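Reminder: ligand-aware prediction takes two inputs, not one.
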Amino acid sequence: MRSVAEHQKIVSELFGPPETVRVAVADALGMATVDDAVAAFAMPAFDNSAMDGYAVRADDIAGASAAEPVRLPVVDDIPAGRTGLVTLAPGTTARIMTGAPLPDGADAVVPVELTDGDFSVDHVPDSTVGFSSGVEAGKHIRREGSDIARGDVALPAGTVLGAAQIGLLSALGLADVAVARRLRVVVLSTGSELVEPGKPLQHGQIYESNGAMLTAALTEAGALARHVHFVPDDVADFLERLDEASADADLIITSGGVSAGAYEVVKEALDAGPVEFVKVAMQPGMPQGCGHHLDPAGRRVPIITLPGNPVSSLVSFEVFIRPPLRAAMGLSPDRPRVAATLGSDIRSPEGKRQFMRGVVDESLLPGVDGRLVVEPIGPPGSHHLRYLAGANALIDIPATTTALPAGSVVNVVVL
Ligand SMILES: Nc1nc2c(c(=O)[nH]1)N[C@H]1C(S)=C(S)[C@@H](COP(=O)(O)OP(=O)(O)OC[C@H]3O[C@@H](n4cnc5c(N)ncnc54)[C@H](O)[C@@H]3O)O[C@H]1N2
Ligand code: MOO
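Here is what comes back for the chain with LQZAQKY5:
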């Protein structure tokens, strides 16, 4: 049997390096940038007001007090977005709004609350305003370049774009951005017993769940996933669907039909071609396959054939596909791994690396010995989707381990 590490290496070789595309910044959520984003101008690009109030020369109101306010004529009204300002003459003030450019000559802003000015909507702007205190020069001014200097690297290459990063690129005036391309992945589920959710079920049939599950896992991993409606266990039909699916796919993932049964459509259809079917020393997820499918145009499309048992399918995705898939999109390949304390005794099959479903404290708070506690959940059978759905961790038990008592330290992948 092939080891997990060997199969991981072979699957990872199906993926190429990240490819670059330009996309609209607004569409780049979750994608990794390819280049440093360099600020073409300073941010803020001009000195501007941090408050709604009055722009002044600080010297003009020095010594103002509640008992002896200083009154200045209001010579201008400056909303955000105003262009073409004139210099503020000594002994005058201008009404100014948050974000509005500071006129030359002004060196401070006094918030409206510290004046007798009235900013209410239907109020006719005052021709003079009284200041009941002085102000320090520089107060309430957002200086040009105080966020980013011109030429600074605003975001280094390789940054995964979240909301704040998309905001920053937009603020820098960028409409599009070079990012690592999302891979287009088609999921093809096989099995004549499968019925589409929402339709009536007969005894002996089950609802198809791997397609939606793997598509969701792919989307979560950052790929563009598409589920091709499951195909019956018919080789010709399967190959036809595979050809159709390959046309616009970077990767095909199948589920089911790869073990030792009499209706193993995936294996039958692909065994003679450049797809290798192997047993991997792991539980769940023993029967695996991977290689290439030649599409009708002769293009080699990587294909990974996952076992049909739902738990095996998703655990195999986690172990073999998610890391290289994400690396091929410039994203961090690995989920967090932690050393945790086992909450209960466990057994594990000899010679197989086991990925047990487990629950770690959602707050990720350490237990008494300073480590997280992981509680194994559910039996080992690969049909126990319920326990997979209840788990937030995979406990990675080495192939050489057959039993561990509660309190042992184990390696845990936090999902
Ligand atoms: N004689 C042997 N039998 C089996 C072996 C073996 O080595 N020798 N391996 C077992 C292991 S381990 C696994 S895992 C499964 C893998 O089987 P297949 O990949 O061929 O999958 P199927 O037989 O098509 O289905 C297995 C199981 O999963 C259900 N299934 C399949 N597809 C879906 C789907 N899209 N949604 C929901 N459920 C699905 C299917 O109904 C079966 O119950 O083989 C063991 N047998
Ligand atoms: O290896 Mo299978 O995936 O145990 O059920």
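The chain has seven helices and 27 strands. Residues 45 and 144 are 5 Å apart (CA to CA). We will return to this case in the review session.
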